[in-house]
Amino acid sequence: MAGEGSDQRALQYEQTLMYGRYTQELGVYAKEEAARLRESGQRLSITERSRKLDLLQYDKGRCAKCRRSGYPYVLDAPAQDFISVCTLRCQKFLISRVGEDWIFLILLGLLMALVSWVVDFCIAICLQAQKWMYGGLDSNVFLQYLAWVTYPVVLITFSAGFTQILAPQAVGSGIPEMKTILRGVVLKEYLTFKTFVAKVIGLTCALGSGMPLGKEGPFVHIASLCAALLSKFMSLFGGIYENESRNIEMLAGACAVGVGCCFAAPIGGVLFSIEVTSTFFAVRNYWRGFFAATFSAFIFRVLAVWNRDEETITALFKTRFRLDFPFDLQELPAFAVIGIASGFGGALFVYLNRLIVQFIRNQKTINRFLMKKRLLYPALVTLLVSTLTFPPGFGQFMAGKLTQKESLVTLLDNRTWAKQGIAEEFDYIGHSLAWQHPQVNVFVTLVIFIVMKFWMSALATTIPVPCGAFMPVFVIGAAFGRLVGESMAAWFPDGINTDGIINPIVPGGYAVVGAAALSGAVTHTVSTAVIVFELTGQISHILPVMIAVILANAVAQSLQPSLYDSIIRIKKLPYLPELGWGHHEKYNIRVEDIMVRDVRYITLSCCYRDLHNVLLTGHLKTLALVESAASMILLGSIERAQLQALLSLQLGRSRRLEFIRERAAAEKKRLSIVSNSDCEDNHQRASQEVRFQISTEESSFSPTRPVLQKPLKPALKRPSVVERPTDIPIGSQDHSNNSSLKNLFCVTPDAELMEDDDDLEDDMTIREIAEWEEMQLDEQVNFNNCKIDPAPFQLVERTSLHKTHTIFSLLGLDHAYVTSIGRLIGVVSLKELRKAIEGSVTVKGVKVRPPLASFRESGTSSSENEATELHKLWDRQKSTSLPGECTLSESDEKSQ
Amino acid sequence: MAGEGSDQRALQYEQTLMYGRYTQELGVYAKEEAARLRESGQRLSITERSRKLDLLQYDKGRCAKCRRSGYPYVLDAPAQDFISVCTLRCQKFLISRVGEDWIFLILLGLLMALVSWVVDFCIAICLQAQKWMYGGLDSNVFLQYLAWVTYPVVLITFSAGFTQILAPQAVGSGIPEMKTILRGVVLKEYLTFKTFVAKVIGLTCALGSGMPLGKEGPFVHIASLCAALLSKFMSLFGGIYENESRNIEMLAGACAVGVGCCFAAPIGGVLFSIEVTSTFFAVRNYWRGFFAATFSAFIFRVLAVWNRDEETITALFKTRFRLDFPFDLQELPAFAVIGIASGFGGALFVYLNRLIVQFIRNQKTINRFLMKKRLLYPALVTLLVSTLTFPPGFGQFMAGKLTQKESLVTLLDNRTWAKQGIAEEFDYIGHSLAWQHPQVNVFVTLVIFIVMKFWMSALATTIPVPCGAFMPVFVIGAAFGRLVGESMAAWFPDGINTDGIINPIVPGGYAVVGAAALSGAVTHTVSTAVIVFELTGQISHILPVMIAVILANAVAQSLQPSLYDSIIRIKKLPYLPELGWGHHEKYNIRVEDIMVRDVRYITLSCCYRDLHNVLLTGHLKTLALVESAASMILLGSIERAQLQALLSLQLGRSRRLEFIRERAAAEKKRLSIVSNSDCEDNHQRASQEVRFQISTEESSFSPTRPVLQKPLKPALKRPSVVERPTDIPIGSQDHSNNSSLKNLFCVTPDAELMEDDDDLEDDMTIREIAEWEEMQLDEQVNFNNCKIDPAPFQLVERTSLHKTHTIFSLLGLDHAYVTSIGRLIGVVSLKELRKAIEGSVTVKGVKVRPPLASFRESGTSSSENEATELHKLWDRQKSTSLPGECTLSESDEKSQ
Is B159 exposed, middle or buried (0-12, 13-18, 19+ CB in 10 A)? Predict the structure, then answer.
């Protein structure tokens, strides 16, 4: 049984790898290790590591900034020199002005176009190599089979292995992760250089294998990686590349670039990325996406011209449908049928994909088997798929020898296959020949193709390599459309005649419609319509495409989540789900039903010991500051890091040294005047003096910037650079050596600072230090140096879940305090909200209200509770004005 | 001089008509009239009217809802009958389920398609009639001229007159108004049936005249009108058509429908409407626009097929460019030039348009002259324009005889004019002949066309008729593009040869690019690119179009506001301007710099007299409720209407009758037991009893719904229908007759209620009533019945203007309270914000931060002020815990 337990753990680890599930276990593991190392005394390496951990854990969302906050200091340290200051300013001006956003966007577009083109080029070479190998061995079917099968197995296995060794985060599409990141949750490991390398190389190999995988999802991720890395690179030149929310805007733009340069579809790319990643969209950022995506698509296509692949810039999958009479009005029902069927198909695809993942996760025997060899699963899947597509084998019934791109080109062809037969007329490439089979007709081929590719794609996208599902789905949709089109063409050989003019049916048009509809259904987007127009270079079928896409969306959205949301759930990414249609009961859930009532707070009059205890117990990013435990009136919120800094400052080595100095001075004084005041007393007084000194120090400053203990550490005093309200030197002065307390908060003991104050010998024993620390902890906290957010987001307890969701989505909050007439009674974080939305709370609702309704109805949320509260206040007011606190604390106790 | 004064006023009125400037004077006027009528004793008609006024004034944004709030009551009144309840429920279920949004959207799409088609049809007939008249009179040039000129003058004059008589709000484009309405500001008069009729008929006549006017802007407005009216109509069937914010979502959808059915461009329509009307866009509402616009465009084009105009559904201005080689890579600089030039041109157009309006407004002589005859200005402009386009006259140099549509068709033609000459080759319609002139070549014709049309369009769009500027601008852009294209074709007669294959230049493609670029520059949108593809049915020029549009936008946005923003400024619509690029100083303005410090508030312990005074002085929609004047702790906000209801209740006839009854009973009692307690005392006690009775009454209820004085008026007690938190019976019990106070708050004295309580004779004299009222006013307000919003939006005084703007835009607020540690210190409304943004406050800024930056930096806004405040609290905490109020009030006084 114990063996099974460890198996279970390994199994879970395997699962993680299998689908790159996001866990925070990594962080926990690293932390444990850090703690172990710390105890073994390797101080320097720990502190660096634990600092990183702390930053990662407490400063999510502010991490990039904080880390870079040390930067201007380094830059401005030699800035006493006037000329260098001038140069710096000029440089900064240039970078901030000229290089505002558009230089960044151009660079990003250029880079992504190059990446996209190179990847495409490599994939083409890989596919050609496979064809060449397969073609060269046509004397022996077995050898041919071996070549046909081994090649993709090797590539996929390499891709899976490479990705998992270098960066397991690169596995999969990347769109779910980007959705989460754009929501404001920082998944830092998803935007590293390692991931970039793993994703690009892994993707190239995976697609080069010829498996039914797509390039589009990973390209969204790659573009975002590019943007993040570029942003980091640009920040070396200073300027505005430091702001995190600007980075988020840039990431949104990058997503558009990803789609844009993948399909050479700038408009579709922008719309698709908006639909897929955003909840609320700021129209003023619209241009970013358009600009970058257009530039990127342009360069991408120019590269093709430059490489002599194309004569000029045209669409990627150019169609040549007739313009004058693209389709008959009476064909519209057929298009609608495609739309509805695609809707069901799309939902089925998402379901199937999830089913496969869950099946493999849940089946213990399979899992245990797969666990042993991590790369077995990809290899097996590849083997299965490539065996089935082996052209002389079953592949002959499903155009197995065509690559994905070739399939698409043939499917979008504007000639009809069914009637005139393929062999006679098709002259140009001959790819369409693959659809013909001597025994079975083209309908059977198409049906087999659709069915086989359907489950193959659903299966292949579960392989742990960088891959998307858009393109496979797109091809299946095109095949389905083609099938309907060919059927129509067979049914009405001379077209649905109107007024004697014969306008034969164009099955290629149906293929376009089908492709847009199915991919729209799987991704829950309407913009696939635009992508299809841009991909084919023809917009003549706009109305059929739009109708089919809308119908497909209507059907699919009512049956299943989108593929990306499904993956988000599978991977358990920290994402706030949408309030979909039909979540009417959400209107009846109130914040008070879901809030956490046991809020960690600090009071204005707390002492450092309380601070210490609060920091020890909770793990929230920010802590509430209340007036007093009795009144619980919310004054603001303080970041954890700030409090840590406060505490470190209080217990810091520098303060201790100061104390020692004071004590020594007092000692000297006492010796000189030979007084006999006892040590205890002196002790006390000294510490008081220190306290006093600090407070006067601060009150003499203009309190615009919290300069930390100026006289004690002039080296640390930063020149007041360009206003940067958040560059908080998190505990940068904290390096008392052995205190057990201090290990909790060991942040940034920079080596250079270590050498400071070395003239004063630290002659305190550990016991003395502990005593001193205990004494320090009993002092009252001085919040003057502390950045307090005076307006943390507040909700009242009767706020509906729906309104809460809207506010959280709109403002990108991660927590909000719940107050009742100014008194803090609870806190709601994303976690609670997610739980509530995912349906653990089930209160049946009555009323349907549109999303933003709650904002207009200011009178909505006032009912019983507020009434009662007001009643209390009212009573209190009447019964002579008592200090109030007692009444409030009573009700407070009641409410908790 | 007095004459000049009145002239001045008439002049201003004239100006209002001239550009349909939005003023609130109408409301003021109506109110004055109402007051006059009230005094003359026509009670019933007044109350109805004043009720409307009150609703309009105080309940903007909630008006529709409140008015309909009586509805469920009416519906449920006979609901004692079980069967009717069932039927009702089924009906409600059907309507709320099946008929959710998409039925509404389908109806809207259908309706708009019909309207669009009918309008197009009528315009075509009008234009044909003009041609016919002009053609029939070709014997006499003078008669021809008369016919050519009179026809448009008559039509435009009729349109202007009709619009101004029926609904002056129908003047102009309508997009600026829709932008304002979608922002959340209710301009009720813009969404009435009258406006709809005026807009449709006015637009048809205006466009039928052949003036360079567009259909697109007005169609956005017409679609919104349709949606509003349809929504009103649907609400007759109950269900969900009552929610105002749902209506706003529907209006946003309607805007997409407007563009969609005008150009048969669903995708472009959606994007254009989003870009033009929204600031923040909820992606979940995306489908609405797509669905409705697609359906509408579909029906619109089906109607054309049905009318045998078209064989099948195709684009409106179908182009036939070659697909294989649409353009050479080396032509791209020319496209870029078109983009940049269009950017300047677009900015110039906006500037010119504004200049003309301002010139005519400011020139007193012109104004005085025009003032005399209101229709003179449109007639004069029309005369000027049509004289210049008279085909045998100057019109021969600018293709004057072509209608706008014909011009566009010829400009987008895929043949080259310059080289092979027009006459020889053009076979199909011969419209292109108009561009040919025996003396001058086509370049001169084009240049003259562009220059003339440019100022003509800018001038024509200032005429007070329903008209848009999109289409004229589009045509000018196409002509400019054509000019560049023809020049290129002349420069490279055999195309820019690549590898020996001759691919001649297609000037039509340049025309497409130019059209998209110029219209994009004028409207500041990127989606004109999509509109252009959908209009022409070809997407082959996607990259040149995108590049040109982006460049045009970049240039135009840095020079001028968009045409719609310009009109918003001219019309002084209550719109919150965008924070554009380069408004860096906004980061340094704080809310405390712009807030109104003199907040109207009521305290929890105030008496009715205070309430009365507050209501008399201010005109804010909601009032702040604070704990006490000393502490100023904000508890919530109460709607003005609620307070009015409270006051009416207190002074209402029913209470007075109750008082009389009590007094009578007491009298009787006194008489019966022959006691000699004096009247004064009894008086006092009676009123106390009443008070007491009410409060026990309420405390015995469960306070979920504020049921008003149950025992006194059982007829008014509503059955607790489906939870509708806002159906407040605004003062519905208020009908004391003569009290002067009551006139202020005379709301809904329903006739049926008047008959109630008639058994009790109201024997109080006016003096007695006044006395009684005085007495009542001194009582303390009981807020138990009152809907209090416990979470009005709060900002802290250090919130930056930028953050404030973002919050206001995102949440659609119209005011927010400014608090400092719970204490109310000011209020900011849209007005202050607008003023601040428009630059009356000029603090130079330093730092550029992206829009949502402020949300992530929770530590940003804490600095001096908070520090000081905290310091105070800190001091207060230390100096023993006093009841606090005094300290707070001190600091309060300081801060005010």
Answer: buried
